[in-house]
Amino acid sequence: MKTLLMLFILPSLIFSQNYSLNSYMDKEFQNIKTNKIKSIKISQSSAQYRTEFYNNEGELTKIDYPDIGYVEIFKKDDRYYYKVIDKDLSIEENNNNIFEMNENFFIDRRWPFRQSNEEIHYILTDSQIKMIYAYMETEVYYDVFIYNSYYENMGSIEVVSPKDVVHNPVVLKRVLEYFYSERKYEELPVLISERKYIYNSDFKLINIEVKDSKTNNIQNITLEYNEKGLPVVNENGETLVYEYY
pTM score, two decimals? Predict the structure, then answer.
């Protein structure tokens, strides 16, 4: 059975701790603090980019996406959350866009409301990424549940066709497993790619093997670092420029 990710609004439910993600985040924040990084501007070959901002403790506090909006990251009761501010939404609508931190957003860092029918699964171990699996959902999967009133009324649900809504894991608040188990599907999501992360003896990511599950072709991606040992070209081919305290 396929396991679905669930996103909840901050005041509504109690969450289970994701120790693997917390350990991964702590390791990254410690590295940011040690190198006294204030911000990182991440650019691609196109004009689109994002800028990440960090406090003196190395914690990620904000990500700015020009012409789209920004994301605020905050900590409450030893848990990290992020609030999405979309420039096209009202203040009231943006106040509802609060989610607990998850692997998909923290590792990927792309705008949370991107449109996609690709599902990503991260395998974290020893504060590192071990493997990433990418799945493509089949047409059979396209009936989904959406909760009304942001989970305040757990009994109020509606079935929505993908023809009428944007199909992505943030907008379509994922259905709980016991609802999904009652529905029958003829097909399962198709695995489209695997990424294997390779580290050196200093636990620095040096290479990524990307395997196309359809053709079995493997692409090797080598990361580039500056004199401080910080990546200047990451696994997505993005260029990183640092500002320091």
Answer: 0.71
